[in-house]
Automatic annotation (TrEMBL):
A molecular function GO annotation: oxidoreductase activity
InterPro entries listed in its UniProt record: Cyt-d_ubiquinol_oxidase_su_1
Main location: membrane
Family designation: Belongs to the cytochrome ubiquinol oxidase subunit 1 family.
UniProt KW keywords: Cell inner membrane, Cell membrane, Electron transport, Heme, Iron, Membrane, Metal-binding, Oxidoreductase, Transmembrane, Transmembrane helix, Transport
TM helices/strands, residue ranges: 20-43, 55-72, 92-117, 129-147, 185-209, 221-239, 392-413, 425-448, 468-492
Organism, scientific name: Paracoccus simplex
Membrane topology type: Multi-pass membrane protein
Name used for this protein in its record: Cytochrome ubiquinol oxidase subunit I
Length: 531
């Protein structure tokens, strides 16, 4: 196999996925924030909330359109760059993607149009229902995408057919309610809510610093800080659930996150900071917090978390057992076209769990049955991902998460108990923090996907076997094309967002101003009566 094609294909998919995820979290979060604002408008009938809904809804629409453009090309890559992967697991992986397109995306896309063009054609309540359906569709899209991704992390509800040499779906219920997928969904969606909250908070802070659109900005900060605080707290709680699932079902990823080279006696400590040295198999200058990793990974103080060295030794055993499964599969293939001996099938079922580990040998030898002890050892070593990017990405992500809690908590306190009076230093900080949720989200995906290597589907299909039969030049050319296209789209996105942010709300301006003037008079009258 040409490893250059494998690495370039990985780089291309990583680049397009990370570009696409610049748009996704803001879409998820803004859809809900806008729906909340419209709910307040319908309940109070105050024009300022209608103006807020339209303004933030416009920014949502820009982001949504470009997110769709970048997302569609990702699905085509499975056929273009990952043809064998699509052949091998398409029966399972394709189902949630198809449902996402037919149900969630069509729901979202249809009601987005109704939302933008239905202001004067629908009643207030009808339009509000449309707004919440847009938010529901956005979240449903994320659900089905993350069910597909969660299956790659922890494949359940499927079985390999040694006759067709493909994975086949045996329980859609198990795929849908995969614990890794469900934990990943709620964690990712909550992160999207935080992203939108920080965005609304930062833009509103910028308006207050300039003394523009003050009423809109103050109310927007009130919504963003309350929603953002709840979301930031849920990200931490749900992130803990993801950590527990990784400890149960993705042990090598958990060990890499912690840079835990050797199995520690229970309860394992958490490495707050350190420098992982993969060659020496040690973490230098490590600062440990007792018990914490045991609680995160096992929810107990008595269960151990396996270290990388032990997991690698177990992987070597699985490679050796997988060779037996591969041999039985080849015997079954030799009987294709005739009645396959049921005893062969039964024997294969006893060893099929380790077949994927035998396929790791394909990187070094055409027929795994001919592998040497050295090649087996190298295949086992391949199950250890590069530790330092995962280790640091996780810690930066978590640090930012706690920072969002502090930021949202402070603004919620000022909005609720200090009459929405915000110090200028806090407003400047809110503006500066706007990019931080995207950094945290991208780092989260690096932990999730980089930590799964060397597998496309964990323990089932190695990444090195998943690619299409392409040349290095072909993949490099499409990689360059995608990067140019996505960079252009990103520039368009930033340009449009900045243009309309600078312009500010421009709809229902006179109606809102009249209402605000009348509202101030009513407040002044009440003050005179009290005095």
């Amino acid at each position: 196999m040409d490893l250059g094609v494998v690495e370039l294909s990985r780089l291309q998919f990583a680049a397009t996925a990370l570009f696409h995820f610049l748009f996704v979290p803001l879409t998820l979060g803004l859809a809900v924030v806008v729906a909340i604002m419209e709910t307040v408008y319908v309940m109070t009938e105050r024009p300022i909330w209608r103006q807020m809904t339209k303004f933030w809804g416009l920014l949502f629409g820009i982001n949504f359109a470009l997110g769709v453009a970048t997302g569609i090309t990702m699905e085509f890559q499975f056929g273009m760059n990952w043809a064998y992967y699509s052949h091998y697991v398409g029966d399972i992986f394709g189902a949630p993607l198809a449902i996402e397109g037919l149900m969630a995306f069509f729901l979202e896309a249809t009601f987005v149009g109704l939302w933008f063009f239905g202001w004067d054609r629908l009643s207030r309540r009808q339009h509000l229902v449309v707004g919440w359906l847009v938010a529901l569709g956005s979240n449903f899209s994320a659900l089905w995408i993350l069910i597909a991704n969660g299956w790659m992390q922890f494949p359940v509800g499927a079985q390999f057919n040694p006759i067709t040499m493909r994975m086949e779906l045996v329980s859609f219920f198990e795929v849908m309610f995969n614990p890794v997928a469900q934990a990943k969904f709620v964690h990712t969606v909550s992160a999207g809510y935080v992203t939108a909250s920080v965005f609304v908070l930062g833009v509103s802070a910028w308006y207050l610093l300039g003394g523009r659109h003050v009423e809109l900005a103050r109310r927007s900060i009130a919504v963003a800080s309350a929603f953002g605080l709840a979301s930031a707290l849920s990200v931490v709680v749900l992130g803990d659930e993801s950590g527990y699932d990784a400890g149960e079902n993705q042990k090598m990823k958990m060990a890499a996150i912690e840079a835990m080279w050797e199995t520690e006696p229970a309860p394992a400590s958490f490495t707050l900071l350190g420098w992982p040295d993969q060659q020496a198999r040690e973490t230098k200058w490590a600062i440990h917090i007792p018990y914490v990793m045991g609680l995160i990974g096992t929810r107990s103080l008595t269960e151990e978390i396996k270290g990388i060295d032990q997991l690698e030794a177990e992987a070597r055993t699985r490679v050796e057992n997988g060779i037996r499964a591969y041999d039985l599969m080849m015997q079954i293939q030799a009987q294709r076209g005739a009645d396959v001996d049921p005893a062969l099938i039964d024997a294969f079922r006893e060893h099929e769990h380790d077949l994927g580990h035998a396929l790791l040998l394909k990187r070094y030898v055409e027929d795994p049955r001919q592998a040497t002890a050295e090649q087996i050892a190298r295949a086992a070593a391949d199950t250890v991902p590069t530790v330092w990017p995962i280790f640091w990405a996780f810690r930066i992500m978590v640090g930012l998460g706690f920072g969002f809690i502090a930021l949202m908590g402070y603004f919620f306190w000022r909005a609720s108990f200090r009459r929405m009076r915000f110090p200028r230093w806090a407003l400047r900080l809110a503006v500066l923090v706007i990019p931080a949720p995207w950094i945290a989200a991208e780092l989260g995906w690096i932990v999730a996907e980089f930590g799964r290597q060397p597998w496309t589907v964990a323990d089932v299909l190695p990444t090195a076997l998943s690619v299409s039969h392409l040349s290095v030049a072909e993949v490099a050319l499409t990689l360059a094309g995608f990067c140019l296209l996505y960079t252009a789209l990103f520039v368009v996105e930033i340009g449009l967002m900045l243009k309309f942010i600078r312009q500010g709300p421009h709809e229902d301006v006179e109606l809102t101003q009249e209402w605000m003037a009348s509202h101030r008079q009513r407040l002044a009258g009440r003050s005179e009566v009290r005095s």
